[in-house]
Every structure is written in structure tokens, then in C-alpha cells.
């Protein structure tokens, strides 16, 4: 069954800084300080982006002393990948499906 891709997740990942953050987190679990160093973003801006990523269910937090570490939820990205794969499969057969003219 073909499901639609979650537009909120697409919107969240459509931001270049958030996509950069997700790419970094795909390699390792990082804290805010690491992410500020890697991206060059201001801490407050980065924190706002992390809130958006958390609310979208893409990342989760892991407290560690006075630091908060962030890690990706791979099942969310895998689900998104499966949804896009289903769309691609549908598009491959769409050339055979042509609606008749009215």
C-alpha cells in the first residue's frame, strides 16, 4: 500500500542547517557544543533547530551531566526512505497508467 510522505518531516529536513545537523548526527552522537563548532551556527539558533528536529521525532536527547547529547532516530529516517521507495516504485508503473481524456 502506498502511503504519503509526512510533509512535516520533509519541511523539517528541507532546511539546510537542519539537514547538515542530521548528516552530522548520522555519523555520531553530538552535544550542542559539538554542533555549534561543526556548523558555525549560534547556540540559540542551533537550539531552536534542535527543538524542531525533536518535535518532528527525528532526533532524541540523551542527558549527560550538564550537557545534552543528540542522536538520530534511525527508524524515522528508514521509514521515510521506505515511503520514498514506494513512491519511486509507483512512478515506475505510472507510465502504464494513463487517464482517459474527458
Q: What is the topology?
A:
Blueprint: H1 7-13, H2 16-25, E1 30-31, H3 32-39, H4 43-55, E2 59-64, E3 67-72, H5 74-94
Antiparallel strand pairs: 1-3, 2-3
Describe this structure in words.
The protein has about 100 residues and is α+β, with helices and mostly antiparallel strands. Helices cover about 60% and strands about 15% of the residues. It has a three-stranded antiparallel sheet with strand order 1-3-2. A hairpin with a 2-residue loop joins strand 2 and strand 3. The longest helix has 21 residues. The protein is elongated and about 65 Å long. It starts with 6 loop residues before the first helix and ends in an 8-residue tail after the last helix.
Helix percentage: 55-70%
Q: Count the helices. How many?
A: 5
Order of helices and strands: HHEHHEEH
Average per-residue pLDDT, rounded, comes to 88
Low-confidence stretches: none
Count of β-strands: 3
Strand content: 5-15%
Largest sheet: 3 strands, antiparallel
Q: Tell me the Rg in angstroms.
A: 18 Å
As laid out across the biggest beta sheet, the strand order is 1-3-2
Q: Supply the helix-strand structural class.
A: alpha+beta
Q: Kindly report how far apart the N and C termini lie.
A: 28 Å
**Shape, per Cα inertia axes:** elongated
Q: Tags for this entry?
A:
alpha+beta; 3-stranded antiparallel beta sheet; 14% strand; elongated; 102 residues
Quick recap of the structure?
The protein is 58% helix and 14% strand. By secondary structure, the chain is α+β, with helices and mostly antiparallel strands. The protein is elongated, with a radius of gyration of 18 Å.
Amino acid at each position: 500500500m502506498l502511503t504519503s510522505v509526512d510533509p512535516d518531516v520533509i519541511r523539517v529536513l528541507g532546511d539546510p542547517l537542519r539537514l547538515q545537523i542530521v548528516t552530522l548526527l548520522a555519523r555520531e552522537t553530538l552535544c550542542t557544543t559539538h554542533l555549534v563548532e561543526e556548523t558555525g551556527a549560534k547556540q540559540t539558533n542551533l537550539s531552536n533547530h534542535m527543538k524542531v528536529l525533536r518535535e518532528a521525532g527525528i532526533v532524541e536527547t540523551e542527558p549527560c551531566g550538564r550537557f545534552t547529547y543528540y542522536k538520530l532516530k534511525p527508524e524515522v529516517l528508514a521509514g521515510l526512505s521506505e515511503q520514498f521507495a514506494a513512491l519511486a516504485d509507483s512512478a515506475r508503473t505510472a507510465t502504464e497508467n494513463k487517464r482517459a481524456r474527458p
